[in-house]
UniProtKB/TrEMBL annotation:
Keywords of the record: Metal-binding, Transferase, Zinc
Keyword Amino-acid biosynthesis carried by entry: no
Cofactor requirement: Zn(2+)
Molecular function (Gene Ontology), one example: 3-keto-5-aminohexanoate cleavage activity
Protein name: Transposase
Pfam families on file: BKACE (PF05853)
InterPro entries, alphabetized: Aldolase_TIM (IPR013785), BKACE (IPR008567)
Amino acid sequence: MNFIDGSNFPEHMEKLVITCAPFGPEWQPADFPEDIPVKLKDQVQKVVDCYNAGATVCHVHGREEDGKGSKSLERTNELVAAIREACPGMILQIGGSISFAPVKEGDTAAWLSDDVRHGLSMIEPRPDQVTIAINSNQMNVVEQMVAADVAGTSLAVGTPGYYAYREMTIPAGPAWVEEHIKRLSARGIQTHFQLATVAQLETVERMMRRGACNVPLILTWVAIGGGFEAPNVYNLSNFVRACPDGSVLTLESSMLNTLPMNMMAIAMGLHVRCGIEDNIWTQDRKAKMGTVKQIEQLVRISREFGREVADGKEARRIYRIGEFYSSAEETLAKNGFAPNRKPGQRGFLQHALAA
């Protein structure tokens, strides 16, 4: 991404797209009963409340009526249908793990099988996006959390929950990834890339160069440690510099890192994610902070900075919902990558015309 003169002026930035993650699949309802929706109607109402507060993308994970994270495609389908009816303006982004919560005490937190996750392409009504990880990787979500982050919760240091999430990994090998993107695209569902490193971004670029991934580069940089990058300005700058100019980048972190990262995103013209899946505390840890309050905080900060918040229609345009490409050449051009080298072509490459 380039930052030429004037790039820091709010009038030169796209409006801010706020993604909310209000379901918190890693938590038990008792961890934050005031803000963890369990019943279907309460989950739907939470999404409506988030939309009214200013979020225009919702990261969806379902729960069963007993409070456990739902691993059922049928439950996910039911939830998506109910949200779509109640909040048609919200961009619905299904978490590609469906649910990583352990089934019973002593189990390791785990992503579901390849075949089950492929089933997300058949959800009806169709979601707008499904998130996807690139390259199998450790996802130890508690590694950078301190004891105060999880004190009194089911993830407190030394509990079975803590050890279950410490051992979590993401299965995302190349054959599965390419097939999943193919199935999502065939159904008109956008792939939303959840990336942790430049190496993963380079894998996506190589897929695009081979014509195996003809989609917009809409992505989130996930800086949570534990196999992902740490949320610091050096890692962020390196990742942003690697992103092509046509990509759309959202930042995600965890616990007290979430707000500082989102403030950087607002100031840089990037986009933000918040909610109890990422953080449950105020910055002084004197109280828990629900998803709606986190959204309202970001709306206020962004407007004080001078950057307006996107409404549902504007967010769909910014996120290029419904846009797909017919060739590697078009994909590279639209996303701002240099073109593929032609046989015998020498020197550095650039597109003849801007995308």
